[in-house]
Design brief:
The chain is α+β, with helices and mostly antiparallel strands and about 500 residues long. It folds into three domains: about 5-10 and about 260-355, no CATH class; about 60-255, no CATH class; about 395-500, Immunoglobulins (Immunoglobulin-like). The protein has helices at about 25-30, 60-80, 110-135, 135-140, 145-160, 160-170, 175-200, 205-215, 220-240, 240-250, 250-255, 270-275, 285-290, 300-305, 325-335, 350-355, 360-365, 370-390, and strands spanning about 15-20, 40-45, 85, 90, 90-95, 100, 105, 265-270, 345, 395-400, 405-410, 415-425, 430-435, 445, 450, 455-465, 475-485, 490-500. The strands form six sheets. Strands 10, 11, 12, 14 and 16 form a five-stranded antiparallel β-sheet that branches. β17 (about 475-485) and β18 form a beta hairpin. The chain is elongated. The model is unreliable at about 1-35 (pLDDT under 50).
């Protein structure tokens, strides 16, 4: 936990932090004898720019998991809009026609409750996973992490490894530097634009969109969103990177409210690693332990591979995204030194403090907050799934005619006029039969059979009449019964019938 005693394995002298002064002011203060010389004063800038992070490449078990998630998420994101079903795009949120196609499902704006349920499930899942295993979402599946990983891979392929990139940035501008920087940014921009194009392809049929792009005949909103989303991808993953995680994303700020001492996090074993120090590889454990050294050789590789530039040996920090790059590189170093792996590992604060086994830490997973999250999540998920399974294949809206409440027509009949909207949620044409109930003598005198095209909707007027003595003056309940031919079910929609005085 940030700020907890276990998160600071090495006792350090308390520091008095004072804002930094401009150079001239600071020197004048020193000249006047105001500088105390006290080592406890640490000068910290309130507006100090962070140094660029040159993350070192790493290979290992968790690195392979990260790249597996990169492939899975991007195959889904880039490939899904190109899938077809029933002669249409399988995943399409058609805002113009107000229809949302999700494979066999056709949803309308009236189905907003399903989106609400999906958002609640996503939030509860995030809470549950965070309580159990920390920021796994951030480290493996967050779009910021995924695209940063892709952009860093491009950077390494064009500019070289960490040392080569540092040399290139520190060198004077020349043909080689200009060519490498230009090639890198060209690839980044291409990835960003393709990402923006794919994003818009979820809202506008992607094959038609591709044809319009080839002809440069896109509409203004399509141009805007392709360029905006592409620029956001390029800026966030290419330039801002860890700044998005540290300063823009709110998740890092409230993660401590979801963590407890049994949450699985990336942890440095201070009892085993301290004190840090270099030593010959030939030293036996007895040799370096006699010098007061632990297993940490203070190589600094765990800091070099960290995409947010933190030192995990200083304890859990809000900048940590649980990407596990430090675990992979530390295990590599332990192998070379012939030490046991796991100096940096996934563990819990209680697991480190109490030296719990893996089985004991797993048993502590079933604690009250986890059980509550799980129960609520399962309840909402089952309810949403059940609602989707039992969802009617068509919807009906009944709207009274605003022109008149009621009117008297031939032979003294009382007539009310309504407007009905029928929405066909299937992929085939449907014919519907209409009738009314709830009021003696009420009958539909307009067309009582309506055909609606596949995944379409249709507004049409309905006239209902009653005999003049069928009901007393006033408002009376009336029910419209709509039945789909072919065994697609029947819907009942309530309204009112008004009888004038």
């Amino acid at each position: 936990m940030p700020g907890s005693p276990d998160s600071q394995p090495v006792a350090r002298k308390a520091a008095k932090v004072i804002p930094i002064l401009p150079a001239k002011v600071a020197s004048s203060h020193a000249a006047d004898g105001n500088a105390t010389g006290d080592d406890s004063n640490v000068v910290a800038s309130l507006y100090q720019a962070d140094k660029k992070i040159y993350a070192r490449s790493v290979s290992g078990l968790f690195s392979h998991w990260r790249w597996s998630m990169v492939w899975i998420t991007q195959l889904v994101f880039y490939g899904l809009p190109w899938l077809s079903i029933h002669d249409r795009q399988a995943m399409l949120f058609d805002l113009a026609s107000r229809r949302f196609y999700i494979f066999n499902l056709v949803l309308y704006p009236q189905d907003l409750i399903y989106l609400t349920g999906l958002l609640i499930i996503s939030a509860l899942s995030l809470f549950l996973f965070t309580a159990v295993a920390g920021r796994l979402w951030c480290g493996y599946a967050c779009p910021q992490t995924v695209y940063t990983e892709i952009f860093m891979w491009v950077e390494r392929k064009i500019e070289g490894d960490r040392a080569a990139r540092m040399r290139l940035d520190n060198s004077a501008m020349g043909a080689n530097k200009l060519a490498r920087k230009g090639a890198k940014h060209a690839v980044w921009i291409a990835i960003g634009l393709w990402t923006g194009f794919t994003f818009v392809g979820y809202f506008s049929p992607i094959r038609e969109l591709a044809l319009e792009v080839s002809r440069l005949s896109l509409g203004p909103w399509e141009w805007f969103w392709i360029l905006f989303y592409g620029f956001a991808t390029y800026g966030n993953a290419g330039w801002m990177r860890e700044q998005v995680c540290k300063y823009m994303c709110p998740y890092a700020r409230f993660q401590s409210a979801m963590f407890d001492r049994d949450t699985l996090i990336v942890t440095y074993d201070a009892a085993r690693g301290e004190g840090r120090g270099v030593r010959p590889r030939s030293d036996t454990p007895a040799d370096y332990q006699a010098k007061g050294l632990g297993d940490c050789i203070d190589c600094g590789l765990c800091v070099q591979v960290c995409p947010t530039g933190i030192d995990i040996r200083n304890g859990l920090q809000y900048e940590c995204i649980s990407c596990s790059a430090c675990i992979d590189v530390c295990d590599t170093v332990m192998d070379k030194m012939h030490y046991p792996r796991g100096l940096i590992r996934y563990s819990t604060p209680n697991g480190i403090r109490l030296k719990l086994s893996s089985a004991a830490m797993v048993r502590r997973v079933l604690r009250p907050r986890v059980l509550i999250y799980t129960a609520v999540l399962l309840t909402i998920s089952v309810s949403l799934l059940g609602s989707l399974i039992t969802r009617a294949p068509f919807k009906v809206d009944v709207v009274r005619d605003r022109g008149s409440l009621a009117r008297v027509v031939g032979q003294g009949q009382i007539e009310n006029v309504y407007r009905l909207q029928l929405m066909n949620a299937t992929e085939v044409p449907q014919q519907y039969q209409l009738r009314v109930s709830g009021l003696d003598g009420a009958q539909i005198v307009s067309e009582a059979s309506v055909t609606v095209e596949p995944a379409g909707s249709r507004w049409f007027p309905v006239r209902v009449q009653t005999p003049p003595d069928a009901a007393a003056p006033g408002s009376h309940a009336l029910t419209f019964l709509i039945k789909a031919e072919g065994g697609q079910g029947e819907r009942a929609e309530k309204s009112v019938f008004f009888v004038p005085r």
